[in-house]
Amino acid sequence: MAMLYMPSSFPAADLEAWFKPSARSEREQALSILDRLHILASKREDDRSLSYSLIPGFQRSLRHAIEGSGTHRTFGVPASEAESGGKRLSIEFLDQHARQQWESILFFMVSGAAGFQPGSVRMDVGPGTKKLLHAGDLVRTVHGTPRITKDGFNFVLQETNAQVWNLLIVYLKMVNELGMSETEVLSFLFMLGSLELGQDYSTSTLSDTQLSMLDDLSAMGIVYRTSKESRTFYPTRLATTLTSDSGALPGSDIGGSGKPDSKAQNKGFIIVETNYRLYAYTNSLIQIAILSLFTKLQHRFPNLVSGKLTKESVHRAVQAGITSAQIISYLTTYAHPQMQKSNPPLPPTVMDQIRLWEYEGERVEVTHGYLMREFGSEAEYRDVLGYAKDLGVLVWQNDEKRCFFLNDVAQIQAYLVKKKDAKRR
């Protein structure tokens, strides 16, 4: 910052005076990073002494950002009365919109594996958002139904801020495919982080890339527009907290009630007994859907669902890519305050059994048999393979390597001998 308004370059000798002699390696590392980021440049003066200066483009942009000057409007252009129509939306409405859109995304991720039918609950998730979830390997489509992956399960357990950034990183990786400029996309995202919640902003100074982004971000609940033709947009709390460590939405984490007045510290809602019975004090469809991924739910009341951790339910979760460590972590994180008084919160027998159920599915099963390989041609391989399938003795096959494994070879041997004799005649 001291170099920002310097009219000339800064001598290296003066810069060294700012550091302790013992911090030489840290100084060199910092200078190297600033050089690679094209923030700081070094040069030799006439007397061969070394000096440093800020890159002019960075220096000019940072000055404009701090002063709010220039014509580029770093912090957005507030909408005029004519553009906004004299009406301004409340912060409560914007929070509700952001929460509804984001929770729809989370519910879309978990609903398929949880057994919810696509039309049973309103899920306003656009095709662009679905494409992002698939591109990030957060969900996969199996027989036409979205199924959450291991990475997706990690995703839904994160704080909302982390979720938003993870999805935006996937978005950034796709900008070239979408025909957008990476620089403009990043610039717009950081601009959104500096905007004021509750203030509407004009779209008149936005580029084509940024206008296209508004449609995508609106579908995620990061911004709000009354329509695609609207000349203004509102940043929601998901946008204004992009560059801060504040909570993205009050009570929006997966353990909260989803209501603005829910207390963050009271997020524990799950009770697990030593007999594997589970009680969850919630009416949130997202929480119920997540629990059903690894729990056999049996009863549902207005503010309570009950079920049981079973071998079959845990195996089903493991087959979907969810690990025992993730299940235990989720149950521990959202354990009821009464359970949190114990250390560990979950009964040790329950944690051990969940791990054992996972290990059962990973055990190696030995099958005695015979490996068939080194076929003379693709036609010969297909012929013998088809015969093995018809006999019901095929255990495993690899078409690429032209080999397969059988649990009985007697009839296959007889078939090959018969074919060999037929060729000799």
What layout of secondary structure does this protein have?
Elements: E1 10-11, H1 12-16, H2 24-36, E2 40-44, E3 50-54, H3 56-67, H4 81-84, H5 91-114, H6 127-135, E4 139-142, E5 145-148, H7 150-156, H8 160-173, H9 182-193, E6 201-202, H10 208-220, E7 223-224, E8 232-235, H11 237-240, E9 270-272, E10 277-280, H12 285-292, E11 296-301, E12 304-308, H13 311-319, H14 324-333, H15 337-340, H16 348-362, E13 370-372, H17 378-391, E14 394-398, E15 403-406, H18 410-424
Antiparallel strand pairs: 1-3, 2-3, 4-5, 6-8, 7-8, 9-10, 10-12, 11-12, 13-15, 14-15
The spatial strand order of the largest sheet comes to: 9-10-12-11
| Helix percent band | 40-55%
Strand tally, please? 15
How much of the sequence is in beta strands?
5-15%
How does the major sheet shape up? 4 strands, antiparallel
User: How many whole angstroms does the radius of gyration measure?
Assistant: 30 Å
Number of domains: 4
Give the count of helical stretches: 18
Amino-to-carboxy terminus distance: 94 Å
Mean pLDDT: 85
Structural class: alpha+beta
Structural features, described:
With 425 residues, the chain is α+β, with helices and mostly antiparallel strands. It has a four-stranded antiparallel sheet, covered by helices on one side. Strands 1-3-2 form a three-stranded antiparallel sheet. Strand 14 and strand 15 form a beta hairpin. About 3% of the residues have low confidence.
Fill in the keyword field for this structure.
3-stranded antiparallel beta sheet, 425 residues, 4-stranded antiparallel beta sheet, alpha+beta
